[in-house]
């Protein structure tokens, strides 16, 4: 299996929520940072697993398949949501990839806008961005 990380990152306490993933080196704009890997499961199983959870490490990659990263060793599973993100999550050929939206400095927390979530507006957003929508 190939190395999912293209740039060095570390997992540490996050001001947004729980633990987050942080750049350990400069990351240039528009470059692939890494991937989120995990167990490939059906979307129906993914939706069953996330019921009632506050921290969700699940991504639907198609209408039928999802990736459950809850037991993955990949650090990108700790990427927190932000309404003003510095990365974008892209699904390519069943892979969940993160790309830098701009230059990211060492020590900066990596964030992505998850747009639709299993929380369906029932969770308060803590990103702190000036344009925060308030709920996930």
Automatic annotation (TrEMBL):
Recorded superkingdom: Bacteria
Domain SET: 7-115
Annotated compartments: Chromosome
GO cellular component: chromosome
Predominant location: cytoplasm
GO molecular function, one term: methyltransferase activity
Keyword annotations from UniProtKB, A to Z: Chromosome, Methyltransferase, S-adenosyl-L-methionine, Transferase
Record-given protein name: SET domain-containing protein-lysine N-methyltransferase
Organism annotation: Caldimonas caldifontis
UniProt lineage: Bacteria, Pseudomonadati, Pseudomonadota, Betaproteobacteria, Burkholderiales
